[in-house]
Amino acid sequence: MGKGIFKPAEKSRRYLSAALKKSLTHSAEIDVKFSEADPLGIVWHGHFIRYFEDGREAFGAAYGLRYLDLFRNDIVVPVVHIECDYRRILRYGHSIRLETTFIDTPAAKLLFNYTITDLATQEHIASGNSVQVFLHRNSLDLMLNLPPFMEDWKNKWLADS
User: Fold this and answer.
1) pLDDT block averages, 10 residues each, the chain of length 161
2) Total structural domains in the chain?
């Protein structure tokens, strides 16, 4: 490939892992539900994106970064990019470990990486990442600078990591 040309997945994966200094990880265990599987007992691929959302919510509850915390500070954070790399089939009845990692960046956005592992076999099932931006709650204008709430949050949780 020519200089500066990346496939979309390569570019975002490279960006998310390149020399970013600080991170914070939350781990949760999830049982695969009957409603998440197709007639063959295989989890539909779209549910992995929901698992990532569940991971962000659990991360937020653990570290004071819930969507309601942001909303109360006049911030909304829509997902503007998400990707998932599937490695293995996941079936009804399996239990997984979902690791959600916040990746620090000086930019006004939230970066998360995800890893899904089968608890019984320790096999890597899937991984992915997402990007969310900050918008003013009422106007929905894009925030170009990190909101004060996030500066305070980073000082609390990432200062010594």
Assistant:
1) 42 43 91 95 95 97 96 97 97 97 96 98 98 98 97 90 50
2) 1
